[in-house]
Amino acid sequence: xxxVGMTELLYLRDSYISKFEAMVTDIxxxxxxxxxxxxxxxxxxxxxxxxxIEWEQYTSHVIHVLKKGEEVYHVLSREMPSRxxxxxxxxxxxxxxxxxxxxxxxxxxxxxxxHLYNSxxxxxxxxxxxxxxxxxxxxxxxxxxxxIEYEANKIVExxxxxxxxxxxxxxxxxxxxxxxxxxxxxxxLPSLRIVEIEGFDAQLDGGTHVSNTxxxxxxxxxxxxxxxxxxxxxxxxxx
Length: 239
Known about the structure:
By secondary structure, the chain is an alpha+beta fold. It folds into two domains: 8-91, Elongation Factor Tu (Ef-tu), domain 3 (Beta Barrel), CATH 2.40.30.130; 96-238, Threonyl-trna Synthetase, Chain A, domain 2 (Threonyl-tRNA Synthetase, Chain A, domain 2). It contains two helices and 15 strands. The strands form four sheets. A six-stranded antiparallel beta sheet has the order 3-2-8-5-6-7, with no helix packed on it. Helix 1 crosses helix 2 (142-157). The longest helix has 25 residues, at 93-117. The model is unreliable at 1-5 (pLDDT under 50).
């Protein structure tokens, strides 16, 4: 999910694309395939985008998007355009932007916890109105939680730019700090996508993000869960 495959993934370079034109390259039982798309397919703890596909006099609701191999499948609620049709994709922007804010918030938390406690991510999930992230933490005391929240909101308030760049896979050897997930989960691809919060943190990632940390809003840790001796969960909302 970190580089462009057969379907050109517009969101990898620009998360703010909300409307685009594309051609239908195939129709399958799982949905239609486009030659390019701005719809984010479910994965990496981020839900899929929804929205609409328009062509001629028709409009069909995109109810789910999934990626298998190098193709992205758009599941439509009604009629499907025929192969070769030029269509217009429209993202449900309110939903997409909420996911962008939460995903960047999780990256800020991941950076804070990594730099404070050298802890890495064991899982994450973005919901409709909250998100959670799991870490290889042993001690999640009240004082630690308050410090994590304070440091995360400092990054938000500093208004740091969030940038996207691509690196050759070999560069990971010289930049082990970019890896916050289990090494076996890193795609075996020649080019990998990095999301960098300027002057603070950078991580491998394939999701959508805001362009400045101020867009996140205030991060509030609302719940902590002990998932095991070395696995702790933080649940957050954005205010």
